Amino acid sequence: MKIAVLSRNPKLYSTKRLIEAIEQHGHEAIIIDHLRCDIIMDDSGPSIYYHGEKLQDIDAIIPRIGASVTFYGTAVVRQFEMMKTFSAVSSLSITRSRDKLRSLQILSRNGLRMPKTAFTNFSKEENKTLQLVGDAPVVIKLLEGTQGLGVMLAESNKAAKSVVEAFEGLKARVILQEFIKEAGGADIRAFVVDGEVVGAMKRQGKEGEFRSNLHRGGSSNVIKLSRAEKSAALKAAESMGLAIAGVDMLQSKRGPLILEVNSSPGLEGIEGATGVDIAGKIVDMIEQKMSKKRRKVDA
Ligand code: ADP
Predict the structure, then answer these.
(1) CB 88 within 8 A of CB 286
(2) Looking at residue 242, what DSSP letter applies?
(3) How far apart are CA 209 and CA 36, in angstroms?
(4) Beta bridge partners of 256
(5) CA of 225 relative to ligand 1 center, distance in Å
(6) Percent of the chain at pLDDT above 70?
(7) pLDDT in tens, 12-59
(8) Domains and CATH numbers, the chain
(9) pLDDT tens, residue by residue, 201-226
(10) What pTM value is reported for the model?
(11) Which of 2, 151, 152, 257 is buried most deeply by CB count within 10 Å?
(12) CB 244 within 8 A of CB 265
C-alpha cells in the first residue's frame, strides 16, 4: 500500500514515527503537506494536485491537521474521501472535535459525564449563568484556545464577570465551566485507536497550576485506567466518530469527566510514557480496515 501522512512538518516526532511504522509494516510512506494541495473539482470528479502533479495512487491517508489550519486541512481530507481514499480519521470527526462547543454538545447528547458547562449570549445576565454552573470558582475557556492557552480560573463571581465582559468586548466567545477542584491540577489522556485504549497517562500541572498541559510545564506518567475511565474514553471517541483519539478526562468524585477529544493527538508524550508502539497500532488499524474494504468490493 501507499500511505500518506498529511503533515506540515516532517521533523515532528509524530510524523517521523508514523512514517517509520508505515515502512516497518512493508508499505510505501509519503508525507504530504496539506496546505500545498490544490483541490480541483470538475465534471470528471474530484482530484488533488500536489506541486503541480495529480495525486492518484494513494491508498490511505493519516491526517495530522493542526488546529490553525482546520478549514483547509479538513477540505483536503474530505477531497481524499470523495476520491475514495481511505482516511484513518474522517474529515467530519476532525471538524466536530475542533469545535469545543459542538464536541461538548455531542458528548452530552451521548450521555457522557463532563464538568457542567454553559454557553450564553446574555452578557448582562452573567450571574444567572454562573448559578447554572454552580458559582465561582469557575473555569472560563476561550472557544478558540488550545494547549491550555485561553483557559482561566476565576476565583470569585466578580472576577468571572469581569473576564467574561472583557472577552465580550473583544468579540471572543467563551464557555463557563464548573471547576473540578479534586482533579488537583491533573488530567488523564487516554489514547484510543479503533475502539481500544492503547495507552494512558496522567498529566500533572506544575506547582500552583490548575492546567496540566505539558506545553504549560506539566509532567506525565503512565497509569492504568479504571473500568469507568476506559469505558468513558471509548464512548467519547465513538460519539465523535474518531478512529484515532486523544481523550482528556478529569478524575472527579462522580467519576471520570470528559474535557475534550483530540483528533490529532501527539505521539511523543504517550509513546514516551507508555513505551507502546502507538504509530504501529495506527498502521495495524489501516491494514485491517483496508482489507475489510477490499473484501467488500470482492464480494
Ligand atoms: P486545552 O484544549 O487548551 O488544553 P482544556 O479544556 O483541555 O484546554 O484545559 C486545559 C487544562 O486545564 C486541562 O488539561 C485541565 O488540567 C485543566 N482544566 C480544564 N477544565 C477544567 C475544569 N473544568 N476543572 C478543573 N480543571 C480543568
Answers:
(1) yes
(2) -
(3) 39
(4) 251
(5) 19
(6) 97
(7) 999 999 999 999 999 999 999 999 999 999 999 999 999 999 998 999
(8) 2-89 (3.40.50.20), 117-179 (3.30.1490.20), 182-263 (3.30.470.20)
(9) 999 988 888 888 777 777 889 999 99
(10) 0.94
(11) 257
(12) yes
Cell output for 213? 498541559
Grid cell listed for 38: 490544490
Give the other-Cβ count within 10 Å of 87's Cβ.
21
The pLDDT-based confidence of 189 (bands split at 50, 70, 90) is very high
**Rounded CA gap, 189 and 232, in Å?**
12
Spell out which residues line ligand 1, taking CB within 6 angstroms.
115, 139, 141, 145-148, 151, 177-180, 183, 187, 205, 210-213, 248, 250, 259-260
Written as nine digits, the cell of 117 is: 458547562
The CA distance from 72 to 82, in Å, is 15
Residue type for 242, please?
L
Torsion of CA 109, 244, 61, 17, to 10 degrees: 160
Asked whether 113 and 257 are in contact (CB, 8 A), the reply is: yes
Which residue of 209, 211, 261 sits with most ligand 1 atoms within 8 Å of its CB, as the best mutation to test the pocket? 211
Cα–Cα distance measured from residue 99 to residue 97, given in angstroms and rounded to the nearest whole number: 5
pLDDT confidence of 122, banded at 50, 70, 90?
Answer: low
Strand extents, DSSP E, 148-284? 151-154, 174-178, 186-193, 196-204, 219-222, 244-252, 255-262
Q: What is the C-alpha to C-alpha distance for residues 264 and 240, in angstroms, rounded to an integer?
A: 13
Q: Cα(110)–Cα(102) distance, rounded to whole angstroms?
A: 13
Arithmetic mean of pLDDT over the chain:
93
User: What grid cell was written down for 235?
Assistant: 464512548
